[in-house]
Amino acid sequence: MKKILLIIILILASVLSLTACKDEEGEGGIDLPDIIDKDPKITGVEIIPENSLVGSGEEVEFKVEAIMDDDTKMDITSDMKFRGDTDKVKFEENKAKVGEDTITGQELIVIAEYIGDLEVNIDLYATLELFNSLEDTINKNGVINNPDDYDLVVNKQRNLSSEYVPKDLVKLEVETCLPNPEINQLRKDASDAITEMFEFAKEEDLRLVARSGYRSYATQDSLYHGIVNKYGQDYADKYSAYPGQSEHQTGLALDITAASVNYQLEDVFGETEEGIWTKENAHRFGFIIRYPEGKEDITGYLYEPWHLRYVGEKLAKRIYEEDITLEEYFVSREEQ
After folding, report:
1. How far is Cα of residue 195 from the mean position of the Cα atoms in its chain?
2. CATH number assigned to the domain comprising residue 155
3. Does one domain contain both 203 and 247?
4. Pick the catalytic residue: 293, 304, 313, 328?
5. Active-site residue 322, yes or no?
6. Which of 129, 159, 188 is the last residue of a domain?
C-alpha cells in the first residue's frame, strides 16, 4: 500500500437545515422529523477517515456517522451519495478511486450528499491532497519514470534518461540575457507562469531577467565535463550537476538574474530587492527556490537563490508555507 497523503477537511455545510418554527416562548428552533425528535437526538454528522494517505490508483473507503446526544453513533453511509468535482476520482458507492495521472499537491473535492428518507439536508465536503511516493517514480536503475510530471524530483540519486526531451518546450516570452536559443526555452505552463511572475515584478518596479532555462542532456554533459577538465571532479560535483541530474533538462527550471548583479548568477542576488521579492512571491506563480540556503545536505547542491523550479501553485504554496525543500516535502509525507 503506497504511503500517500490524504488530508480530509470536513466542512459540514447546511447540516440538518430544516424549516424553522417558533416555540411557545417565541424563540427560534428547528422542526425535526419525528424520528430525529425522539431520544437520542442527532447532534452532528462526521465523515471517516479524517486523516489518511492516498495516491495514484489507490482507493479510499468513506464512512459517514450521525452523532447522537448520548455520544453513540449511527452509521448512515448507505444513505449518502458520494461524488467528486473532477473525473480524476471515480466512485463506486462509498469507495473513491484516484486516477493514475495525479500530481502531488493537487486537491480533489469529494462531496457526500444525504439521500435517505429523512427530510434533512446534509452535505459533507472532503478535500483529497494527492501525493506520489518517490519510490514509485523511479526504476531499479535510478531513472525517473515520471519525467513529464510537475512533481518529479531530480537530484544526485534520481536521474533523467539521456533520451528525455520535454514535448511542450516553447520560447520564453520574457527578457533574456544570453543568445543561445536552447536555454531560452521552458515547458509551456512554466513559461506562462514565469511571464506572469515577471509582469507582476515589473509592476513593483523590479526588472527580472531570464538567464538559463532548458538544457538538453548533451548540453549538460558538455558543461559538466568542461568544468571537470578545468577545475577537477570535486569542484564540478560541488558546483554543477552531472548529466541526467540537472533540473534544467526537465524544462521546468530557470535561472534568473538582474542588473543589480550584472546579470550574473551570484549568491548576493538573494539579498537584492529582486531576490527578496522572488523568494517571497515565486510560490504564487507555481515556483520554488529549489536550492535554499542551509539545506545543502538535503538537496545536494549549494545555495542558489536564482534557481527557480516550477512545481505548480498548489505544491509551491505548501513548500513555501512549510519552509522546506522539495525533498523534505516528500519525506515528510512518506512518514505519515
Report:
1. 20
2. 3.30.1380.10
3. yes
4. 304
5. no
6. 129
